[in-house]
């Protein structure tokens, strides 16, 4: 990426067109957050329901201060510790600070300061914050490479800034700071424990309180997400992988398996198995998950994929949150 390309991308943003941009989590779809018609194009390109508010992506804390009256002491501590980084925070807005199209009519907005220099330079050059939903077609796994973005949005957006594969692989943690007790609306690489260690008080985990039938606080959490064409079944930590292999052996069709290396190496897999490694730990599983789900769709026509389930602590909570959605809560045990 040279300076010229960055200048061009910044101009495209200023002209009200769409530019996909890299972050450390997943690729985002950028448009001038202060330009109503530009923001509308983002919903159209993604096929996103209009009541699902967008994240506002900034390159400085002062950009947030344009829209937010003041930060609590906790917010200041979290900004200091985690920005730039994978913690998105929801703040109460000054009246009429951002359009309804961005906020979905809420009096709050989610702000994100990503840890990617190219994108921070883009925002600074454009001189405006950019809305930044994940740059996928609504309902598909979030994109972790520029190629994924191209696959979903080619012909619908003006440019893609390519900075190689993202490092984290799942979207940022969304933390609601507009309420008395800060509350995690979406788990990500910055965990509940990480946040509590900084503010020295308990944080709520909205996911454990809200069933799918109620209205979740983050509107985006109510939609089916990350769903590949294949049916994914979660193999829980207490399941026996040999039984999975036996099931595959008893069925003629090709079946996908996404698992840790130690699992893969411990089993003599039937010939009709296609095994894909999630590496050795939860961090690499989170990193690989979306790319592998896409791979199953684009290059293989499997009807069934078995995926490694993990105990949901630390980054594994974010991994299991996404995996549960792609599996529609289906488990190997149910077969
Ligand atoms: O890592 C990320 O956060 C990526 C990268 C591109 O920055 N972006 C991303 O954006 O995942 P998106 O739009 O796909 O997810 C934002 C989530 C949605 O679930 C949305 O409903 C929620 O945040 N959200 C946004 N504004 C909100 C608000 N004011 N109150 C509650 N939830 C909000
Ligand atoms: Mg998304």
UniProtKB/TrEMBL annotation:
Protein name (Swiss-Prot/TrEMBL): Threonylcarbamoyl-AMP synthase
Any Pfam family the entry gives: Sua5_yciO_yrdC
Function (record text): Required for the formation of a threonylcarbamoyl group on adenosine at position 37 (t(6)A37) in tRNAs that read codons beginning with adenine.
UniProt domain YrdC-like: residue ranges: 3-190
Main subcellular location: cytoplasm
Similarity comment: family membership: Belongs to the SUA5 family.
Keywords attached to this entry: ATP-binding, Cytoplasm, Nucleotide-binding, Nucleotidyltransferase, Transferase, tRNA processing
E.C. no: 2.7.7.87
Catalysed reactions listed for this entry: L-threonine + hydrogencarbonate + ATP = L-threonylcarbamoyladenylate + diphosphate + H2O
Hydrolase among keywords: no
Intracellular or extracellular location(s): Cytoplasm
Spans traversing the lipid bilayer: none
